[in-house]
Write a structure and sequence with these properties.
By secondary structure, the protein is mainly α. Helix content is about 50%, strand content about 10%. It has 2 domains: about 60 residues, Fe,Mn superoxide dismutase (SOD) domain (Helix Hairpins, Orthogonal Bundle), CATH 1.10.287.990; about 100 residues, minor pseudopilin epsh fold. A 3-stranded antiparallel beta sheet has the order 2-1-3. A hairpin with a 2-residue loop joins strand 1 and strand 2. It is an enzyme of class 1 (oxidoreductase). Pfam families: Sod_Fe_C, Sod_Fe_N.
């Protein structure tokens, strides 16, 4: 059973001007599609041919002989999660259960934003910044390349920000901080985060 490129939850121009249609044409239309294509080639005729994406990721994690399989499977999952982490007219302070939980576990939204941007900015090279729930408490993670909190026992991803250069270079050139500011102020889909929190609780 081959994987398909999951549809975006909005049109390719819907996040403009914060993430342009041109960026989505490359990032979603080329990069994400390539991970899907590569994954399908790697699982064809193997025990993973009919396996769910999450099982492929956990099976391949930490096995150097399956690095290609892990990287492509995890990048398919990470990117799909990232697209849903954003929405047109998003960003700003959260509402609902996640707002209360952020205040409880970080002290304030501002402290969360500071730590989240520090994770994204402190990730050397390519990678991701994450908000996760583990043991009933929110935490920040940064992962290099294709790594994902899915492989961390007990951790549930709630939100991610892609900090690979192809996520922002066309719109922000080399300014990752400007991209991270725009992500938090204008793009975060707090409804998605609240749903993930509810599902994990």
């Amino acid at each position: 059973m081959a994987f398909d490129l999951p549809p975006l939850p909005y049109s390719r121009d819907a996040l403009s001007p914060h993430v342009s249609e041109e960026t989505l044409n490359f990032h979603y239309g080329k990069h994400h599609q390539a991970y899907v294509n590569n994954l399908n080639k790697l699982i064809e005729g193997t025990d993973h041919a009919d396996a769910p994406l999450e099982k492929i990721i956990t099976d391949a994690s930490g096995d150097s002989s399956k690095a290609g399989l892990f990287n492509n499977a995890a990048q398919v999952w990470n990117h799909t999660f990232y697209w849903h982490s954003m929405k047109p007219g998003g960003g700003g302070k959260p509402t609902g259960a996640i707002a209360k939980k952020i205040d409880e576990d970080f002290g304030s939204y501002e402290k969360f934003a500071e730590e989240f941007k520090a994770a994204g900015g402190g990730q050397f090279g390519s990678g991701w910044a994450w908000l996760v729930l583990k043991d009933g408490k929110l935490g920040i993670r940064k992962t290099p390349n294709a790594e994902t909190p899915l492989t961390e026992a007990g951790a549930t991803p709630l939100l991610t920000m892609d900090v690979w250069e192809h996520a922002y270079y066309l719109d922000y050139q080399n300014s990752r901080p400007n991209y991270m500011d725009a992500f938090l102020e204008n793009l975060v889909n707090w409804d998605f985060v609240n749903q993930n929190l509810a599902d994990a609780s």
